[in-house]
Hints:
Elements: H1 3-16, E1 26-35, E2 41-44, H2 46-58, E3 60-72, E4 77-88, H3 95-99, E5 101-109, E6 112-119, H4 122-128
Parallel strand pairs: 1-6
Antiparallel strand pairs: 1-2, 3-4, 4-5, 5-6
Amino acid sequence: MSENLEIVKAIYAEWEKGDWSSSDWADPEIEFEMVGDLxxxxxxxxxEMAKAWGRMVNAWDGLTADPEEFREIDDGRILVLLHNxxxxxxxxxxxxxxxxxxxxxxxxxxGRVTKxxxxxxxxxxxxxxxx
Length: 131
């Protein structure tokens, strides 16, 4: 297993326990992007990523993003295929009804995540990555 893959799996080990608080893995100038219909935008830096992430996480009750597969795309990028669940706090809609299969793409340089893209639609991630 590559060092980059180990980094991403360690991040998910915390996230799977519901601990979203650490950003030790992130480059201070991380590029953070959410792509898709639910929440879309891009932010730069740990503080901006934390605000955007917090808004997204707090919009859902019981939010989980369970990794189904980790793929090394190339030397610095890791694709994680996810299964989502949760219920909208305001809408009551089940996340599985609108975006059960998602993906995250991590770009890693010198042991830090320099870019993280959250795709609400797994197929769009695969298309964007030309896989």
